[in-house]
Each structure stands twice: as structure tokens, then as C-alpha cells.
Amino acid sequence: MIDITNLRVRYGETIAVDLREAIHIERGERIGIIGSNGAGKTSLVNALLGLIPAEGRFHVGVPRSEIGVHMQINSYAETMPVRVIIETVLGAPLRRLPLVQELIDFFNFEGSLGKSYRKLSGGQKQRLTLIMVLAMEQPLVFFDEVTSGLDYETRQRLIDKLISWYDARETTLVMISHYYEELENLVDRILYLEEGQLVAFGRKHELFRRYCGRTIITLANSPEHLPLIAGFERLVSPEHLLAVSCGDTEAEARLTARLREHNIDYRRSSSDIEIMSINALATWRRQNVKESA
After folding, report:
1. Is residue 34 a contact partner of residue 198, using CB atoms and an 8 Å limit?
2. Distance between CA atoms of 188 and 208, rounded to whole angstroms?
């Protein structure tokens, strides 16, 4: 579906994307693109869509007319009724668009059809764009920060809807998101960019094993907890957490027994995109330092 041998995007003298490793995305796969602000995520998507100039060898296996796109910013006439926006964009009255009506019911959007666009809440605006993107039933769909600016509860409801909608479909999805919990249940593979370069690309469980081990144990970061994890492999983690890698069941059993003995609350995980990404980045930076030395 998408093949990248190498790809470079420049803005003047600035190189925004510089991919030198081969990336292949199969039809029907679900890809999450992660990275910090300015990492090149949106520039990569725009290059694949042909919206900005790019150098290199890359190919998208469907024509632009068969690609659905949900971008961070979508502009519609502020005073136009929502029903008119949908019918104008999709080129037919709602009564002739049964799939759109199904999506309107799916997203509980019927009550918003008579409103003008400017009267919609942030969540309603996201639902409007999602309805129109999903209604096109394209084989390849890009989502750029689909829940940006929404509160946690609204974000979670939208993601649950997307998971449910695509569950039985063979659509290839490429989703940019800063919210790792959204990606845990929605995507198969992670493409991690930083400074326009590839940090890691692979299946979630493979990347987790590579950078974190078999399982991890996380607990609150406090001075009294540090002695309890002595002798175990500590991972890089957010400041408020201690994260420990358990390479086998024996190590996990010893650590959890020690924590239970001291009545310490902990969390066990065999899939954590946030911890994985932090340790993948640390590994990537160490490798870059070695190569530049």
C-alpha cells in the first residue's frame, strides 16, 4: 500500500523529514505515527499525499481520489448549516446517502444537523469531519490528531467509535497522535519520528520487547521505593514513575514478591507505547552520539 525507500522534505534550508530506512505498509494495516512536536509527522503525511514537494523514492499504491484525510484544521463556512455542509461536500442529499445516515446515528449526531458550523462544540466538529471521511469508505485513510483539543472523556468516546467502526473493515489506517492510549487498541505498528528521522518502526509488541523486555513493572517514583528495585534493570521513564524491565518470569516473580511484601502498589504491563517510546528514543540518541564521535 505504501512503500518508502527514502524520503526527504525541505523547507528552505531546513530538513523537516529525512527518512533513509525502508518502510513498507501493507494493505489493511493500522499504523500509529508518534513523535514530539516538530518531529516531521504531518510533513511526512503531506508528502505522501502529494501536498508538499518531497525528494526520494516512495510510492502510495492508491490514487489520491481514493484516500481519506482527516487533518488537524478543517475549514467550513461558519454560518452554513451542518446538513448543507455534508450534502455539499458529499454531493448528494442525505436521503440518498444511507451510509452517511448510518454514521450520523453511529456518532449520535442527528441533533447537530440543523446547527451552523460555528455553533458546534470541538467534539461535534471532530465528529462532522469523521462522518465525511468515513462515509467515503476509502481504502487508505490518514488521521492527523483526530482528537486534538478534546477532553479525555470525549477523546475516549471518539476512539471507541473508530475502533468499533473499523473492526470488520480492511481499511489501511495511518494515524498521527500524541495520545498513546488511543493507539494501544487501534494500531498494529508504530512509526516513531524524531528530528525528521526514523527512531523505530515495527509491530507494537516487537518494539516493546526490543526496548523494554518481556514485561515491565511500574510504580511511583519515591526515595523509599528505590532500594526495592535495586538489582533489577531500570528503564527510562516519566519523572513520576519508576519502570523496571523483567526479562523472564523469575525476575518478575522476585520483584513483585518484594513489592507485595512492602505493600507497594505497582502496575504490570506487556504493552506500553509511552515507556517503549521513551526507551527507543534514548537508544536512538546513544547510537547517534556513538556515530558522531
Report:
1. no
2. 12
Query: Other C-beta atoms within 10 Å of 217: how many?
Result: 22
The pLDDT tens digits of the residues spanning 236-272 come to 999 999 999 999 999 999 999 999 999 999 999 999 9
Alpha-carbon gap, residue 234 to 229, rounded angstroms:
8
The Cα 15–Cα 36 span in angstroms is: 16
Q: And the C-alpha cell for 122?
A: 470541538
pTM score? 0.88
pLDDT of residue 199: 98
> Which residue matches cell numbers 528503564?
235
**Strand ranges across the sheet with 30-34:** 67-70, 140-144, 172-176, 30-34, 189-194, 197-203
- The answer to whether the CB of 90 falls within 8 A of the CB of 97 is yes
Question: CA angle, 34 as apex, 31 and 37 as ends, to 5°?
Answer: 145
Q: Give the DSSP per-residue string, 65-113.
A: GGEEEE-S-----TTSBHHHHHHHHHTS-GGG-HHHHHHHHHTT-GGGT
